[in-house]
UniProtKB/TrEMBL annotation:
This is Fungal lipase-type domain-containing protein. Keywords: Chloroplast, Hydrolase, Lipid degradation, Lipid metabolism, Plastid, Transit peptide. GO terms for molecular function: galactolipase activity; phospholipase A1 activity. It comes from Turnera subulata. Residues 201-347 form the Fungal lipase-type domain. It is found in: Plastid, Chloroplast. InterPro entries: AB_hydrolase_fold (IPR029058), Fungal_lipase-type (IPR002921). GO terms for biological process: lipid catabolic process. Pfam families: Lipase_3. Residues 1-29 are annotated as: Disordered. One of its GO terms (cellular component) is chloroplast. Belongs to the AB hydrolase superfamily. Lipase family. It comes from the Eukaryota.
Amino acid sequence: MNRPSMVRAHQQVLIDHPKHRKPSNPASRLSRSLSNLLHLHIETPQRSHLSCTNWDLVCQEKQSMPVMSPKEDISYMWQQLHGSNDWHNLLDPLPPCLRREIVKYGEFAQATYDAFDFDPFSEYCGSCRYNLNKLFEQLGLTKHGYKVCKYIYAMSHVNLPGWLERSHWVDTWSKDSNWMGYVAISDDEETRRIGRRDIAVAWRGTVAPSEWYEDFQRKLEPIGDGDAKVEHGFHTIYTSKSDSTRYNKSSASEQVMKEVTRLVQLYRDNGEEVSLTITGHSLGGALALLNAYEAGKSLPGLPISVISFGAPRVGNIAFRDELQDMGIKTLRVVNKQDIVPRMPGIVFNESLERFDDFTGTLDWVYTHVGSELKVDIQSSPYLKHGLNLAGFHCLETYLHLVDGFHGSCSTFRSDAKRDVALVNKACDMLVDELRIPHCWYQLANKGLVPNAHGRWVKPTRKPEDIPSPCS
């Protein structure tokens, strides 16, 4: 099938094997330049020390293992797991209960990719493939005990080349908007297990690593009334709206805050304790931080946490300080080999803070927020170790590494539960001995189905899965 636009963009930087190499182009030259500038430690691909026989045994063992551990009651410590103490002494080593929560929110973020219609030959390109009442059921996420209650749509007034391919159809579901994420709420059983009613917001990201430098090395612009500033492109996606559009008469910001505010009031009025957990990968991680900032301003006293994966820097030092003053907790999961968390501000970043005594506070310097959980490609025996910027940045790679992480001084967990095959959904990171095809997550027959006359055509969506106007 037509692979998602994210995958096609990623293929521009797949240079870890000679057969993938193409004549030099700006994207590949940029990737190599960034690797040199960032001093990335990349090993030459090597054949695993395990024999094929041992790999067969590994595969058989993994196939007979449940994909997740039994859930446990964490209600007595939910504040600590939600970051009340900035996850102090909880990240290295990483306790199983926190690991499972991080993976849970990561899978919520992954759902924004898995359900997104990237097919430019589809009249619904840019929308979610499924009705919100079926999203988790279609993606196998009902095990987490949440219900989707609102979809979020976004648009942009700035030129962002490559962040989304538009449909080739003349009459499409929308010429302006894209499905950007959703709001979900924990059900009664999950609420009892985790100790509070949790509102989860998941944001989608689409930009390939080689595009960050050109697309988002932009200016910082003010947010709020103080000195806080954030990256212009991120803020534009979050706040853009137009009366002439069908899905963005209100901005993504207004859509998400209206629903979060409604849910907070609903459950607080019922006497329940409520939390807000916002997650996203890549660009989605940046939008998650903007969402948390706005929620902190609008809903004081609400416990708010951000769990992001491979997210870039978003704002300046004053933006970070305001988030901290509002009590917003941020946990950034960062792959050591991924270049996106080092951008924007690849040169001018938080490392310049050490010179504050001489320069004063630099309000134009990008800086990260919160605590960091660092994972490493080199730790997993299942992953190739060559240069693969796309694979380093893929969310499924992140989730695999988190699932296998115990501590910085420990080896990859032998009892890691998550299915290893998921890593190759949209990249080529697994060692060949596992015999898992790369970029395997795709619709059968490239999305074509035979109609009543035996002709192969694009299927029509069920009425409930067709995007409808926002109320």
